[in-house]
Design goal:
The protein is an alpha+beta fold. Strands 2, 4, 5, 7, 8, 9, 10, 11, 25, 26 and 27 form an eleven-stranded mixed sheet that branches. A six-stranded antiparallel sheet has the order 12-24-14-20-17-18. A four-stranded antiparallel sheet has the order 19-15-22-23, with no helix packed on it. The longest helix has 25 residues, at 217-241.
Length: 652
Amino acid sequence: MIQLPRLLGDGSILQQGKPIHIWGWVKGEPEEEAVGLTISLTEEGGDIVHRRQIKAEGRFDVYFSALEAGHTLSLLVKDDRGNEARSVNLRTGEVILCSGQSNMELPMERVKYRYPEEIEGAQDPDLRCFKVTEYANFHGPEEEHLSGCWKSVSPETIRSFSATGYFFGKELRALSKVPVGLIDCSLGGTLISSWMSREMLQEYPELLAQADQYADDDFLNGRKKTNEENAARWYGNLERTDIGNAQHWENPDIFSPKDCKDRIDLPVYLEDTPLKGFIGSFWITRTFQVPQHLAGRSMRLWLGTIVDNDVFYINGIKVGETPYQYPPRKYVIPEGVLKAGENIITGRIHVENGEGRFTPNKKYAIFSLDTDTSAIDADQSIPGEDEINLAGTWYYRIGCTSEQVPPTDFVNWKPTGLFNGMTAPCHNFPLGGIIWYQGESNTGEKQNYTQLTRAMVEGYRRLWQDPEIPYWYVQLPNYMADLKDETGWPALREMQRRCDSIPLTGMVVAYDLGEDYDLHPTGKKRIGKRLAHLHAAFAYHYAEGAESPFVSEVFSTRDGLLLHTDGVRSLHADHGSVKLCPREDLEILDFEAEDTAGNRIPLKVSLEGRDILLENVPEDVTAICYCYSNTNKGALIYGDNGLPLSPFRMEI
């Protein structure tokens, strides 16, 4: 039997301009006998492009000379016993490894309301994705993926595509006019060390010790079992002791606002209510009025995001539930549920760690299915037609209290596990580049992220035996909802900024593309486009400026400090279009000086061409900071290419 790797299956994209690696395995034959193989790449229409005959025992590897983009090929491997393996509809083009954590993994399904036209009009046979299934191995690198296949973009497949990857690929297709293949190797919550090999972590004995610990199967299985038992015990206790469950508070004849004495105004952080520090289950309810013309209609119900999980009922009918905090609560009310006049909505909320919230700056409403969701998915609270506002006063009653939920040990996130199980099997497959969106989970780690990134990038290039694989990455955007201080995210952004010292890398500044109250902003189109422009500038000499302006020199003048930027011809102030409550003025408020005592002093700022003049700088200044905070207070600085200046902290 001849087995080809899944990456060389039907629909594969082969990297243009680099030697084509064909490999696989001969299985089931006596080990002492070499098998004769004929390996052929045939052009659509029947012309043989490459052919080679070899002898193989077990694994075989063949390298063919490079081809330019645009070929359509079939691959045939035959042995001298009559066995064969075939892959069809192979295309030559640009192959990109897409890796990182949740903001890379976030699928198009989660942004479908922001970009409904992308879902409806998805059709591109030359934009394809290979989604690598989550799998961790702490014993060593896997040789082959356990599952996976190439899928081209269509209305049936697009919902599972990485949104960042899809928009990157779509823009790169438009710029390059070549087929694009995306290898999606991402998983939410992961640290950078999850995606690094033992060799890449040689300077980090504490991380290798952790990897060794999880390589003990008894220990690993014990951790998994503890996770399962803890979760079953905690949630089971909640189900048993919640008086609302026992009394069926979802039924409006049993539980309604008149049965509650306590009120809460949504949206809100529970720490700002009498429920501060609450852990357990509580029920919320309110009435709302439905006009006659909406009675019986199917409608949308949006409730922002809720920490930690919820289930909602309208008039006693279950309309939606979400098991954890991050997904937006976007439910559809079935036909026949709403009635003319007074209706009752009831929700059961679980709070696991005493930090519950109904996230601010989100839409809490019932509205028509016909409303243009692309306009409101950024939670700008643009009213749709026939909208029923659900923000404001609700009533609540506690179902049960509980101890804090036991922590989950996310075993797959540990060092080397995902590299071995997901990334390592890709290294035989030539790449045109890597795009990376990760860092949120490293904000509390002690290791230097710049050094880790350098070790990973250099390690990948050694593994692929290609020192010129470009690496494009996304700097953490603005965000503040769960952050307790102003140190972790700004420091991580600065370490990401300093990764520009690694050759053949480029950073997308995203400080204007996040959402202050959402860890997973839905505006992934501009993230993907900015990444694509970086790659197009490198691979296709795309002329438009693809890099953000950066401070190259600092001068002391009689008026203050003058920061000279490169990469653009001029600078201007703007707020960007993603901020939830943009200011009308364009005052720049996010430059500060640090003095010898560690104080931060706001600075007066003016722009002159591509220079930034900072005034009222203290004499004992030790550092200059720009947007060195979780989110900005004033306008941002953009270059004439439309890209923002990166946040930074620069010692003086």
